[in-house]
Specification:
By secondary structure, the chain is α/β, with parallel strands linked by helices. The protein has three domains: about 130 residues, NusB-like (N-utilizing Substance Protein B Homolog, Chain A); about 70 residues, Alpha-Beta Plaits (2-Layer Sandwich), CATH 3.30.70; about 200 residues, Rossmann fold, CATH 3.40.50. Helices cover about 40% and strands about 15% of the residues. The chain is built from 16 helices and twelve strands. The strands form two sheets. Strands 5, 6, 7, 8, 9, 10, 11 and 12 form an eight-stranded mixed β-sheet that branches. Strands 2-3-1-4 form a four-stranded antiparallel β-sheet, covered by helices on one side. The protein is globular. The mean pLDDT is about 95. This is MFS transporter. Belongs to the class I-like SAM-binding methyltransferase superfamily. RsmB/NOP family.
């Protein structure tokens, strides 16, 4: 008897469910790799299902609440993950067809010993969703942003910006690159468009990053347009000694080296520092020092003319690439990050020489991690003063400069007039006058 073959599409559904289950439990999303799903088309479809389920999480929460009278069953293995993937397909990806969503969801549920007793419930819920798919497909985009942050963001950025946040969440992030040298021929070969300064953007690509032109030759590195802003604002003479705190994976370190500074890169994570060294080697860049150490206690033998602190934060500004982050974070998480940032700012100040420049930045949309930290630093660190950023320094993105000379980007902004948005980022520049 010939061995029974698996239904087409079942394996990718099972693999996708396991990945989504781990993200729902608190892991950061990472796209499935060739080692997990060898077939490129299967892998692309699985990643599409997962990211749609994550981007639409708020709307799926509403749908699940409407369909499951008794709530989500406890201790049910991959049931919730399979349900979310299948609802995402039925309601938001109708081009993939309803039959496969129903059939494969039930089959995938039966393959999980902890969920198989719920296969009948899975079938009933999805058939109800199919019958109501038109209504569910018209759900408000207001559901996309959790209440944890929605009210704060509305007050900080306004209703029009929040509409842009929803659009950016659903669209995802294009690929931004920082070029070693602005080469029009390379930009054309990449199929990219200039964004700001030496940042270019690739809207669509059909191959992995490592296969793009110029990667092996070290002609660029991946870096969101917003993340590339802080290092450009250091405003020191070439050759100045600069300390890059929390440096890994090294995008800002590479920018500082490119600007001609003598850079010490420090990070507490040894494996991430190895990645930084590898990235610099590919670019043929050399830092003066790369140190595995604690940014909160590092004590240099001599002070630096510049310090760049890209502080650990809630990372809410990265939701175009990590939509799960806005559902994982709580008010308590933000408060914990605020305390850590203040400790790091204090030590960054200790490492800074008189007349030196300190750049503080976070990929967060929370005022508590940005604007409020500036007020704290000015009140708590004697001798530190604000060194305002000017609109002229932010050509092409002047609207990101606040009245106080701080920089605040958000996903509703389109740098260089290009679609695709940018990360939410905050940058403050200080100078030490004594």
């Amino acid at each position: 008897m010939a061995p029974k073959t698996e239904p087409a599409g079942l394996k990718l559904r099972l693999v996708a469910a396991q990945r989504l289950k781990s993200v729902l439990a608190g892991d950061n999303f990472a796209p499935l790799t060739a080692a997990e799903l060898a077939d490129g088309r299967d892998r692309a479809l699985a990643n599409r299902l997962i990211t749609t389920a994550l981007r639409r999480q708020g709307q799926l929460n509403f749908i699940i609440h409407a369909l499951l009278d008794k709530g989500m069953p406890g201790k049910s293995g991959t049931f919730e993950a399979i349900l979310r993937l299948s609802l995402a397909q039925l309601v938001f990806l109708p081009d993939l067809g309803a039959h496969s969503a129903l059939f494969l969801a039930v089959e995938a549920t039966k393959r999980d010993p902890k969920a198989r007793h719920l296969s009948g419930l899975m079938n009933a819920v999805l058939r109800s969703a199919q019958a109501n798919s038109a209504k569910f497909g018209m759900l408000s985009d207001d559901l996309l942003i959790p209440d944890t942050f929605g009210d704060t963001w509305l007050q900080a950025y306004g209703e029009e910006a929040i509409d842009g946040f929803s659009d950016a969440l659903l669209a995802g992030a294009p690929l931004d690159l920082t070029l070693k040298n602005v080469d029009p021929e390379l930009i054309e070969t990449l199929g990219a468009e200039p964004v700001l300064a030496d940042t270019v953007r690739i809207e669509q690509r059909d191959r992995p990053v490592e296969a793009l032109p110029g990667y092996a030759e070290g002609q660029w590195w991946v870096q969101d347009a917003a993340s590339a802003i802080p290092a450009r604002l250091l405003a020191l003479e070439p050759g100045a000694r600069v300390l890059d705190l929390c440096a890994a994976p090294g995008g800002k370190t590479a920018q500082l080296i490119k600007a001609g500074y003598a850079v010490t890169a420090l990070d507490s994570d040894a494996s991430r520092m190895e990645r930084l060294r590898g990235n610099l080697a590919r670019l043929n860049y050399t830092a003066t020092e790369t140190i595995v150490g604690d940014a909160g206690t590092f004590a240099p033998t001599s002070l630096y003319s510049g310090v760049l602190l890209d502080a650990p934060c809630s990372a809410t500004g990265t939701f175009r690439r990590h939509p799960e982050v806005i559902w994982h974070r709580s008010v308590g998480d933000v408060a914990g990050r605020v305390r850590l940032q203040r400790a790091l700012l204090t030590n960054a100040f200790r490492c800074l020489d008189t007349d030196g420049v300190l750049l503080y930045c976070v990929c967060s949309l929370e005022p508590a991690e940005g604007e409020e930290q500036v007020e704290w630093a000015l009140d708590s660190l004697p001798g530190l003063e604000l060194f305002p950023v000017t609109a002229a320094e932010m050509a092409g993105l002047e609207q990101a400069v606040t009245e106080k000379g701080l920089v605040r980007t958000h996903p509703g902004m389109n740098p260089g007039g290009l679609a695709g948005g940018m990360d939410g980022f905050f940058v403050a520049r200080f100078r030490r006058h004594r």
